[in-house]
Amino acid sequence: MYVANKKRYENMQYNRVGNSGLKLPAMSLGLWHNFGDVDRLQTQKDILFCAFDHGITHFDLANNYGPPAGSAEKNFGRILREDFKSYRDELIISSKAGYYMWPGPYGEWGSKKNIVASCDQSLKRMGLDYVDIFYHHRPDPETPIEETAQALDLLVRQGKALYIGVSNYSAEQTREITKVFKELRTPFIIHQPRYNMMDRWIEDGLTDVLAQEHLGAITFSPLAQGILTDRYLNGIPEDSRAGRSSSPFLSPEKVDETIDKVRKLNDIAKKRGQTLAEMALAWNLQEPTVTSVLIGASRVSQLEDNLKALNNLDFSEEELKEVDKILL
Ligand SMILES: NC(=O)c1ccc[n+]([C@@H]2O[C@H](COP(=O)([O-])OP(=O)(O)OC[C@H]3O[C@@H](n4cnc5c(N)ncnc54)[C@H](OP(=O)(O)O)[C@@H]3O)[C@@H](O)[C@H]2O)c1
């Protein structure tokens, strides 16, 4: 039976999400990869225990995480039941709907039908009465934004979600849905965009909207799925995300295209006395709207390395310029 480390709150930093009442750890853990039925349950447990023991109180899921889709929520539900039950009130658990989940016209996107049904399925899989944050996973070009916002608002009124977020929305779409949420008085507090040294799209407008609307950002793939670590410095390991043919989201070609820049970034990290992963996470957190970096880990040692990022979050002007020179 798991018993959490008594000192778990001593070293983590907690940041307020926008101007809401909610604080998130500077580092959160995502269950997109490594928590499906294809992954060893004991490793899943070890990663989650290590995270919570170090003050990571936030675990991020979605209906479709696995593989197979749904299995990450199911496995997380089992671990919650077996090991984390007495810690539920110390945890912030999120899920999402929007990507393909089941066949037919209601199994994806942003209709009220999809969002309400998907949230119910997620709660059942995880064995929860409510999630702390529920996200619309991607904008829907066909459903009126008012309908999507009303569906998310309904989840809060039904007690199925405490807070609402959106993910992958552009600056303009974020502004638009914020307007509807304000009319509905929905506790919409957070945006989940991709953001890392290699993908800085949020700097072209979204961060301005987030700052103006007092929303927080939790940034996903802050390590560019492993590219911004030492994982690929000496080739592509078979057990890495890029090396596994079952992972369509990171290809060996993508690694090859970026490796020269990665080596140069690694040199800066060394000069700072950090690993590249630590530096990439620290760099992410210096963007003022970023409340939390949302990392993934396939083993405990990666998580332990990543947590060390919090020991040195400061950059000199010169270091930032050096990073920009490599990347821009
Ligand atoms: N909203 C969305 O649309 C969306 C999309 C994507 C992700 N997300 C969320 O964001 C979370 C994180 O995404 P991500 O997994 O792409 O994040 P990431 O932190 O950029 O990548 C994680 C992967 O990098 C490698 N890694 C991590 N730390 C390492 C270290 N210290 N040294 C060497 N390699 C290391 C591991 O891959 P190996 O397998 O190679 O070991 C690990 O699984 C997801 O779980 C999910 O919750 C959301």
Task: Please give a quick description of this structure.
The chain is α/β, with parallel strands linked by helices. It is built from ten helices and ten strands. The strands form two sheets. An eight-stranded parallel β-barrel has the order 3-4-5-6-7-8-9-10, surrounded by six helices. The protein has a two-stranded antiparallel ribbon with strand order 1-2.
Molecular structure report:
The protein is an alpha/beta fold and 328 residues long. It has one domain: TIM Barrel, CATH 3.20.20. The chain is 38% helix and 15% strand. It has ten helices and ten strands. The chain has helices at 41-53, 71-84, 112-126, 145-157, 171-184, 206-212, 252-272, 276-285, 300-307, 317-327; strands at residues 14-16, 23-25, 27-30, 58-60, 92-97, 131-136, 161-167, 188-192, 216-220, 290-295. Strands 3-4-5-6-7-8-9-10 form an eight-stranded parallel β-barrel, surrounded by six helices. It is globular and about 50 Å long. It starts with 13 loop residues before the first strand and ends with a helix. The model has no long low-confidence stretch (mean pLDDT 97).
List keywords for this structure.
8-stranded parallel β-barrel, two-stranded antiparallel sheet, binds NADP nicotinamide-adenine-dinucleotide phosphate, globular, 328 residues, single chain, 15% strand
Tell me the overall shape: globular
**Which fold name is given in CATH as the topology?**
TIM Barrel
Strand content: 5-15%
Structural class: alpha/beta
Low-confidence stretches: none
Encode the helix/strand succession as letters: EEEHEHEHEHEHEHEHHEHH
The CATH superfamily turns out to be: NADP-dependent oxidoreductase domain
Radius of gyration from CA coordinates: 19 Å
Domain tally: 1
Average pLDDT across residues? Answer: 97
Question: In the CATH hierarchy, what is the architecture at level 2?
Answer: Alpha-Beta Barrel
Total count of strands: 10
Q: Largest beta sheet, briefly?
A: 8 strands, parallel, barrel
Number of helices: 10
Q: What's the CATH class, please?
A: Alpha Beta
CA-CA gap between termini: 49 Å
